[in-house]
Protein 1
Amino acid sequence: MTALHLPAAFTQTATTGKTIPRTADGKPNFQGIWQVRSRASYDLQDHVARHGMPAGRGVVEGNEIPYQPWAAAKKQENFANRQKADPLNQCFMPGVPRIMYMEFPFHIFQTRDHIAMTFEWSQVYRLIYTNGSKGPEGIEFWMGDGRGRWEGDTLVVNVTDHNSKTWFDMAGNFHSEALRLVERYTMLDADTIQYEVTIEDPKVFTRPWKIAMPLHRQKDMVRILEYQCQAEAEEANGDFEREPRTWYPKP
Amino acid sequence: MNKRKATLFYLIVTALLLLATAFLEAQGRGQGQGGGRGQAPGGGRGQAPAAKREPIRRMPDGKPDLSGFYSADGGGANYGLERRENRDFLTPSTRGVIVDPADGTLPYQPWARAERIDRDTPQRGYDDPTAHCFVAGVPRSMYTPSPYHILQPPGYVVLLFERMSWRQIPLDGRKHLPDHVRLWMGDSIGRWEGDTLVVETKNLNGKAWLNEVGDVLSHAAQVVERFTPIDADNITYRATITDPVVYTRPYTIEIPLRRQEDGEILEVACHEDNGDLHHLKDVRDEYRAQQKKEK
Amino acid sequence: MVISNSYRTGTRSRLAACLIGLSMGLFAASAFAHHSFTAEYDPKRPVKLQGKVTEMKWSNPHGWIYVDVVTDGKVVNWALETGGANGLYRRGWRKEDLPAGTEVTFEGWQARNGKPTANISTITFKDGRRLFAGTSNNAAPQQ
């Protein structure tokens, strides 16, 4: 069986002319370990450094997030309260798209009917269905529900059924349960996927808006490890005590 | 009563009670599962349903195709690996999933059996890592009563658990992580032996419990699992656990896994919605306060 | 059942235990939890009450139903722990099936600390329908 680093075939992509790996059925082969280099996880927009936060160029097209007036005020409130108010600080699931640009690697697995993404962060995952099936109705998910299809060499994923409890970043950018995303994954070359998201939420924003950033293949890892956010937090603050005879002892 | 009559009396009573138990259990099974607009599937005790069986599905390279949406018929393994009738209303009976040793008991070292008994007390409920919504580890993830999706992308078998966690099993014959790198879900490496997927897991951190009653695992545990498909929709799952810190010898559990066409995993936001943990902590803290008073 | 020589007092209590165990088997509340229920709830404190739903929390691995119960003229809001929302969803239940104001009867076991919290085995509507609460297997198919 072919290992992940020896794809079945390489062909050129229309967009860049660079060679990309392909699956047995001719689709771009995304399988592998990926991670962003952008600083979007801190703040989607251009931002200067603050204590504990590096500076970063934004990933928002036009650098403007079109909040409705009430929502712009809410965002400022979130920002001011972010230490306590950021759901990620309680180790709650980051939701989509935030999980995609956090500073932890993830592994993409690809079959004919599914794209699975397993994240180092707290072992969350996304299972995107590319078999044309429809999602469940009347349920909200922290990580949304993703249904994808191919448009040429671009994977297009509709992500719906979000709850209202996740943020976009550490700066307090937020949404409601009416959030709908259209993600686009396009391989620029064997080691780069251009990741774009069109974001729509008629309860919060005045119009749709877009973010875009590359995902980079992590070639120096053979597997992702674990960051069990809540377990680490509770061991650190004493809420969880290890049983002395069973856990891995320090040397 | 003399001794011989007494023995005969008790033999007859035992036989009658065993018959009664079997009868009543069969009734209870039908009753206890209904409600709502649907019903839980029947299924025998740990057996694949007798309905028409399709042959094992295959990948293009001839290896079995294990992919799909599965539920384990754990028979209560998440409440105890050994067989036990209902202790009380709140703890289900456990079928017992140990196939080796043949008597179905866990070959505990004395300290570990004592620890296991202690864990099954109200004041220790807080210590179960899954009460904190931490991941269940290996092999517990395979029989916690939520379904999972198995995928077979090139070079891997990937499991996605509805109780949000994953396992990825590479098939490229690589080496394990170094021994000092430890993970809740360990490091798993797989290979095919005929139609059986054999998965070896090392690098466990020893923090997980094997179930709610606290069956014990340590940092020395290594697990070898065997997934043997028996038809298109059923896998016999066996796990052999070797843990010289806890047990006197390795032992093996066996659990059927059932695939459901068109099933889809939903989401369990366990930590986000965890309403019980502070109650369990209160029970523990009250017990500790009581212990202090008595000293 | 162990057959032993000390059969006088030992036997009677063993027989009694067997019979109690049998009757319990009928009502096996195989609640699929993520923690031990007996750590939190008391098998010696059964409850059977009725009241009006104030809220339902559709969560996993357990859901919570909040019910106003009138006892001695006072209204007490009970928190009832049920099987998870995914199991209910797979059995065809939807959020709108249990709106606030719905009258229900419930049976279960109260928390060890005596608070109005219970782990429930059944919850029954006025029309006799049962919400498959405590015993739901999240993986069972919808019919």
Protein 2
Amino acid sequence: MGEIPILKIRDCLLVSIQVDMHDRLALALQDDLTQRIVEDRARGVMIDISALEIVDSFIGRMLNNIAAMSRVLDAVTVVVGMRPAVAITLVELGLTLTGVRTALNVDRGLEMIRGIIDRDEREDDRRDG
Amino acid sequence: MSDHQNFLHGLIEKHQTQLLADWLACLTRGSASGAGAHRDDDRSEQAKRFIDQLRMGVRHGQLSDISASDWTPMRELLEDISRSQASEGISSTQTATFVFSFKEPLFELLRRNIQNDTDCLARETWSATRLLDQLGLFTIECYQRTREELIGRQQQELLELSTPVVQLWDGILALPLIGTLDSARTQIVMESLLERIVTSGAEIAIIDITGVPTVDTLVAQHLIKTISAARLMGADCILSGIRPQIAQTIVHLGLELNVISKATMADALRLALHRTRKTIVSRAAAPAQEA
Amino acid sequence: MIVETDDTMPVRTSDDVVRVRQAVRARAVAVGFSLVDQTKIITAASEIARNTVDYGGGGTARIETLRNGQRRGVRLTFADQGPGIADLKLAMTDGYTSGHGLGLGLSGAKRLVNEFDVTSAPGQGTIVTLARWK
């Protein structure tokens, strides 16, 4: 297991990034998450970056990778808690988080995931029905 | 050479009290009446410190370059004086005149003490005048810098005042933009909006551009940056106040704003309420009053 | 212009990248940058430092704090003896990448600072200088 704890809230996984990440940690996180999504049959992955003062293209890549990988496993990824200074810098940097939804905080993030899962289930019902 | 170096120093040291008295008399003569006792106290204090620092500065004979370390305390004193006078609104001429007026008592002192050597008198007078000129010009520089800082601060405050962010409802913010949107303004706008989004937990920000005179490519870029930043944080934006001419310009320039736009703030609010899953209902009319 | 502080540190591993960020933050705070300006210069430093490690085979980072009259600033110089950049113009365009991922590196970092300079040629290593003023 890596050094970043992964919590389970109902059918969502919550990861809180508190430390300055380096390569090993980032790779370990991606591996751990993949495993946990399958093990816990998670439908949502929430990444809390409210403690991050810097988000550079490395972290951006990591977030995009996590989103892509969880999509393959039919889970929704939401990044929450981005700081204003970080948002302003990312826009200036020109970095886009593709396939990554964002929400203001954990509460909103959970609502969003819930909303998407429910909507998808309705879609499926309609198609099958 | 060392004679010359220490001459001025020795002279000032010996006649300091007289110099001060003469100078203050000079200043009082030259200034407008009714300056008040408070001003007078300040001025004699400043004059005394000036002469002290002048004596210290010439101690090692450094008369030609006031940026040398011997003159650091004097420069600091002059900065102090300029700064406080600048913020009191006293003109830079008055501040510099304070320094230049010292020439009168100083030259008088030189004249009295160099009776028989006209060459020496000319030399000393010349180096003293050069020194005081430098010091006077330095005060003008300080003064200008202080005024510029003041103006800069006022501009900043104005900028902040003119970008208010209001909360229209739970989770709905409005940002009425007034005036042109340049890059400096955009920075401030982005920062206030984003901070407010965090503190109020807003889901939607309505950016109203009724008060923005023109929307060209640059302004559009700034708007897009602001909207992107808000979205990155998890809030969405609605643009309102799009006048017909603005709509035409946007199409004409081929600008892709990539955001929902409404003509009026009311329309934007209606949409925002809908998006945040709120409905407004009219209350039933009150029943007739019992007689 | 006066150079007030001047420190150089190695940039060879991804742990070094973290150290560079921390060192740049310390200087940016000392110079009195606003939070947003701090974030911008630290992010730019992080981008270039990673390039130095990933593509330059490791190198050094020099962090200077400057004073020009009333203005204060931070200047960073990243140097490596790596393969160098073949097509500088191409490398400076948005979206260019020589590896996987976003590859915003140079052009993105340039937008975060006031002064930006790259000197590089194949076989001659790379030197990237960035500066941000208060």
